[in-house]
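ERR on first pass: missing label on line 2. Operator R.T. fixed the label and resubmitted. Corrected input:
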Amino acid sequence: MFKILKKEILGPQMVSMVLDAKSIAKIAEPGQFVIIRVSEKGERIPLTVANFDRVKGTITIVFQKIGKTTYLLAEKNEGDFILDVAGPLGNPTEIEKFGKVVCVGGGIGIAPVYPISRKLKEEGNDVISIVGFRSKDYVFWEEKMKSASNKLLIATNDGSYGEKGFVTDVLGKLLETEKDIVRIFAIGPAVMMKAVADMTLKYGIKTIVSLNSLMVCGMGMCGACRVTVGGETKFTCSDGPDFDAHQVDFDELMKRLAVYKEEEQIAMELFKGGK
Amino acid sequence: MSVNKKATPMKEQEATERRKNFLEVPLGYTKEEAIIEANRCLQCPTHPCIEGCPVHINIPVFIKAIREENFQLAVDIIHESNLLPAVTGRVCPQEEQCQVVCVVGKIGDPVSIGRLERFVADWDIENRKKGNTLLPKKEAPKGKKVAIIGAGPAGLSCAADLARFGYDVTIFEAFHVAGGVLVYGIPEFRLPKSIVEEEISMLTKMGVKFEFDFLIGRTRTINGFFEDGFSAVFIGSGAGLPQFMHIPGENLGGIYSANEFLTRVNLMKAYKFPEYDTPIKRAKRVAVIGGGNVAMDAARTALRLGAEHVYLIYRRGRDEMPARAEEIVHAEEEGIEFVLLSNPLRYIGDENGFVKQVECIKMQLGEPDSSGRRRPIPIEGSEFTIDIDEAIVAIGTIPNPIIAKTTPGLKTGKHGEILVNENMQTSIRGVFAGGDIVTGAATVITAMGAGRAAAKSIDRFLKGEI
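pass 2 clean. output:
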């Protein structure tokens, strides 16, 4: 049982929670995730560790209410418990002193980007971060991202805050002006990561994405999260979640993400109907 | 004295009925049936059955106790060697172990040792429900802590013995419940989860502690345990990495590893979706690839989820199938369609990325290979397709590499198996291993035997004898 110490509404449908999870906080690294189970009859879902505090023994999870499990989770309040939190899982993001790097976060994907850009900055990289939101209402962690970057660029789809457009619009301009970018990290919806990968391929800049495959076990025993990378089948949970964006078969990933669409709708309708 | 050559049959759910439900198939012996069967045992002086049993249960003596209707004594005798008899009585391949060497087997059916073990274990569970729990005797506390990695058959049996020896034992389990393959792999209709839970509760009562959601190599490394004050570590993490064929289309929607399919259904109870949140596809035409026990479990599970056709595609013939004879018969009775001497070449998907066909090639058997079975060879030009909307790949598992990857100095073999000496010691002092992580995928009882052997070695190690 893991206690929720702090709950914060970050924006429409977006919630962050600080959990008491000493053994995870002790060793979690940027890029790793946890598998949580909210209730006895609940499913296991992966959530990235968006922050950790080794001294206080806490980790932060950030999620968007999109299905029954995340709605159930969002109903929990400070002082309540989450049944299971297993982790930290997956391989930490490979971080060293690269030089000039760009961190791209889209929507809820900004949460996992934050500890990565923070560590990149700590390691002495020149970190430019690009964060994209649907509109001004959705903006969160602006200050955090600012502190974790040397330069922060913000885009909203409707132009209500920052630049109007997608993160790729901002990235496109940046790539034209900044010629010494050596590595790009991108986390967000699969379609965004694919767009970033397509764009950076032309520039030949190594790009790392953190995949959000469906998972059951999170420890490499089931293969629910398999993905094709460089023509080979990999397990996102144990081989990833970070992969070379230019090698990932995003079309397959997106199809696999939609496998349970029908069932997810059934569960959601029953949930909304109070069942 | 003449012995009945025929074994006392055990009642089963009818095939037409059971293929629609997840209730247990064999129903167990009544007291009368158990006594009749127990009387078939000759109490022979050579008792080869004990040697045939991987954990060396004192079989003739517990059978004698049944005959004398002293069921508690029978329980106690079994518990000396095995704390999970309700499990092993159901899933052990007795026909290859204790029963294959039974002297009665020379003149007729061997004594149904497995069914008798199950009868005793089930009697005990019922008796415990009435509040009569008799715990195995424990030695005085030795004041030393042992960490067990994995709450599967190997870890559970190792923990039970170490607790009996007086050690302070904690089992670290990656999933949220104990049991390992007993809870995620073996289906409800073959091993009810309530029974596993009840058997494991014996360990808790003996003082064994459990830590869940704890993935070794991630949450804590092996070396971390020594820093935390543990004096020895046993790794029983199993062979959890599912194998795929690496053929085109294998990542289409609707294609599962048997591990994923069974974990969703058994551990996460997806067969009760949407009451439970984990979904599973309710497919109509299912292909299961493989011929082992796991393939049979997957096929019979798919049927119970409502499939109209379940094709079991196996590259060799029926006689070469590694599954237990009993499981093959059960599968056949329930209407699983065997597509033998056939091997998948590729999967064909629809526009949404779901599997719609599997293309196979016919095989013939050539000379025996390293496994001793005749090698299957493709017959050129014999390709054929089957329309399916789901495929389950059940071609085996290999050891999960996470522990080896995160433990410097731990020596492993070419399939990732942990290397141990005759005392189950790994290349790191104080670290022992046993079960599927050492042998590759094997049976529940072999893993339990390894767990017990390791417990003995750990005891000797902690006494400074090895």
